[in-house]
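All the exercises in this workshop are built on plain-text protein records. Sequence and backbone structure share a record, each on its own labelled line. The question running through the whole workshop is how a given chain folds. The record below serves as our worked example for the rest of this section.
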Amino acid sequence: MANPEKAAAVEELKELFSNSSAAVLTEYRGLSVDQLQKLRRSVGENANYAVVKNTLTEIAAKESGITAFEGKMTGPSAIAFVTGDPVDVAKSLRDFAKENPQLIVKGGYMDGQTLDEAGVKKLADLESREVLLGKLAGALIGVQSKAAAVFQAPLSKAVRTVEALRAEQEAA
């Protein structure tokens, strides 16, 4: 029978995995408590950055159907469980790692897809959801304006033709 405290910890981790849209695994060796607090503040309301026990996390991930962390749970590990925009969290982690090279991003998962370190960096390079939605809205408005011009062209051509015929009849 498993230790009840460990079983409770696995259940808590499983719940964090199920409630998050993404998770990013990091190694925080060499970071001070103040630096970890700063990191937690930087990910803000978009994620829960938690120091985890490797073995219990591997068990919880397997039971949750997540294979992204297999073989990566070594050393002092922490996971950012993302509940908001994954791009914002990835950017926060990237920016913090630039200032504090002790933070190592090992990988993660998003929407059931495994991300390696390069995948998390690519995610951080994306523009935020709001910017992408704004670009999409601008493109759709542009398409609608072009469509309106196409539909309006035959009508205006007909008006010009009728006006030219009227002017020709008046002249004759």
